[in-house]
Amino acid sequence: MSGEDSNSALSTQDPALTLRLAVLLSGRGSNFLSIHNAITSGTLKGEIVCVISNRPGVPGIVRARELGLPAHEIDHKAHPSRLDHESEVLRVLREAKPDYIVLAGYMRLLSSSFIDEWRHRIINIHPSLLPAFPGVDAQKQALDYGVKISGCTVHFVDENLDAGPILVQRSVEVRGDDTAETLSARILEQEHQAYVEALVKLAESRFRIEGRRVIFDAAR
Ligand code: GAR
Predict the structure, then answer these.
(1) Which of 184, 186, 188 most suits a substitution to test ligand 1, by most atoms within 8 Å of the C-beta?
(2) Residue 2: pLDDT band by 50, 70, 90 thresholds?
(3) CA 46 / ligand 1 centre spacing (Å)
(4) Is the CB of residue 139 below 6 angstroms from any atom belonging to ligand 1?
């Protein structure tokens, strides 16, 4: 990554290129499918070069295989330690050579050496307007706190939980009769759009990071 220091980084992407994406998931995979649909419909100039699940047999990885994508089930329970599991994930990633690693409901923490190797190339989606409500059950946290607006955040992954520089956010109104389920469902609709929006920006524009701010140049 040229020109990088602790406060700034420049995209290495040539915006004219198709984005090579590795998707990591642990479950349902609706964000993965929305990204896949954006690629097949031509909205996003990209290619999914591998899909990795740490949970065998979950709907996301089953669908990836049905779609003919390179699908890898790397069961964390079959590995003696977190780092051992991660080294297998890294082996697949290094072979697939993605431009970006897309976490789509991947419920595993990444080690700092993993994050360092792929600095500013790992993207996550979180179902709240960060920095509010990081961690698990973000939608329930928002409801319990009583906020009137919540939403979702697409961000680069750094060493802290749900905390890296923000690419895209979308807001969702919290209704008086919302349950965690109804709020989650409306946020999820926005997640699907926000993730695609962030990836389209990465595909079409250069960006730089100043401090915590991700600044996109105009698309060309
Ligand atoms: C999504 O709501 C995503 O924001 C959340 O998991 C769900 C995965 O759904 N991720 C996190 O909470 C990460 N902190 P999906 O499998 O249908 O894409």
Answers:
(1) 188
(2) very low
(3) 21
(4) no
Verify whether ligand 1 is closer than 6 Å to residue 108 (CB atom): no
- The C-alpha R_g of the chain, in whole angstroms, comes to 17
Quick: pLDDT tens for 96-134.
999 999 999 999 999 999 999 999 999 999 999 999 999
Residue 11 or residue 154, greater confidence: 154
Residue numbers of the domain that contains 75 = 8-127+151-170+191-216
Does a cis peptide bond (omega within 30 degrees of 0) precede residue 131? Answer: yes
3-state secondary structure 36-68: HHHHHCCCCCEEEEEEEECCCCCHHHHHHHHCC
Q: How far is the CA of 126 from the centre of ligand 1 (A)?
A: 6
Burial of 62 (0-12, 13-18, 19+ CB in 10 A): middle
Is 79 a known active-site residue? no
Counting from 1 in the atom list of ligand 1, the atom nearest the Cα of 191 is 4
**pTM of the predicted model as reported, rounded to 2 decimal places:** 0.93
**The domain that contains 118 carries what CATH number?**
3.40.50.170
SS3 state at 70: coil
Tokens representing 188? 């999820």
